[in-house]
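Dear Dr. H.,

I hope your travels went smoothly. While you were away I took the liberty of generating a structure for the chain from your last submission, since the lab meeting agenda had it listed for discussion. I wanted you to have the full record in hand beforehand rather than looking at slides cold. The sequence, exactly as received, is reproduced here:
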Amino acid sequence: MKKLLSFSTVILIILFSVFPCSSFEAEDIQPVGDSDAYLVGDANANGEIEIIDVTVISRYIAGFSVSVIDLDAADSDTDGSLSIIDATIIQRYLAEIDAYATYYVGVYNYVVDEGKRVAEKVSQRKNADTVSFIAFSDAHYHADTKEIIDGITHAGQGMDIIISSADIDFAAVLGDNGWQDSSTSLDEGLRQIQATNDLIASGMEKTANLRVPGNHCSQIGAYYTNRDYHRNADLYPYYGAYNTQAVFDEENRRRGYCYQDFSEHKLRVICLNTSDLEDIKPANLESHDISAEQLKWFCSALDMSKKADAAKWQILILSHAPLDWSDNTMPASVILNAYASGSQGSVTKNDTEIRYDFSRSRRAAVIGQVHGHIHDYKVDNLRYIDNDGQTRIGGISRIAVPNACNGRDNEYKYAPHEYLDIDFADEVSYHKTVGTGKDTSFTVFTVDLAARKVYADCYGAGIDRVISY
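The corresponding predicted structure, in token form, is as follows:
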């Protein structure tokens, strides 16, 4: 229960104290739903963070009377005690000075609790051989749905807490920031993407970013409404432009695919654009594609032959859709599996043959593919099509990142997507709960490069997973 003290209660505390109170040891709070929810820093419990909250805390600590004080909310650094530091943190928050614990202020206690829980788990997993990153996907911002907006807001705050508290190497946004259905105008679609970017900005600005667009972003599904759709160049400012430390195919920079080397960890992260629609005819309404140009670039990005220690490196793939989602994305899965096995061959895309030969090159180990789109926690092996046209189960894992939006959970369980009899649905659906730390979902990955394990820790509604590779 929240501890809300009235004027008379404060007077009794003062009367029974020989000296003014200098600190207050708060209980550990285990909030359940809305009844125990409060904004950290809202000392006078009026639903706002204002300078009066600083005054209330300062007066209480000095032993002066206050009309109302919420002792839980007043503990703005959430360390379980009340001191002048808590008032100072609120002052810094109001002055927009980013400093110790200001990322808790103005955040609901259940978001803080969930963020601290995940940050602690990630910190315990870290060692000299690990890389940690956040993966956030499928926010599907909708201006008329408060539950979605609140969930995205809380995801952004949770990511800020984790990035500020744990050693996070980068943060990934895997597309579909907007709702962008068949009736959404092109301008409104871009506003939805930007609205999500704004809501998650506070934490994302503190670490390296890797972002890719998703199938909703192009709005090709609304082609017959708008008679047009977003090209890669239109979407680049909302995704690719955030990848400031990445290496792009400069001739096709605005297509958004790129890679970033984390040399201290001998890790290359390759970002693929699975909605690269430059070669698609709009009338087909096909929202997933990896162009021939991108496939050629992918082969070169996998090539580690210029690195003398290539065998000590590892590769991680990020994208929105699974690489075995459709005929239009499958060639990338074929190439990746060929790389992992050290084989040679070719794929054909739009009458263009892309040949590859990984049989003699120095190769890195493939960690797997991390993707969004399917709105669940499915872990499976990428399928590929062999030279005889047979569908095979490869040895590379694909790991799904859940949808951040409230609703549409595990949607391919209820509306199956059929391609080569591949089941993209999860056995269990993890639904969001409004007013709790489970009103959204994203994943914090810690990859132990030496142990060859991926720890996928869930923030919000869902489960933790451990994947060996």
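Two observations you may find useful: Residues 117 and 137 are 21 Å apart (CA to CA). The first helix runs from residue 7 to 15.

With kind regards,
E. W.
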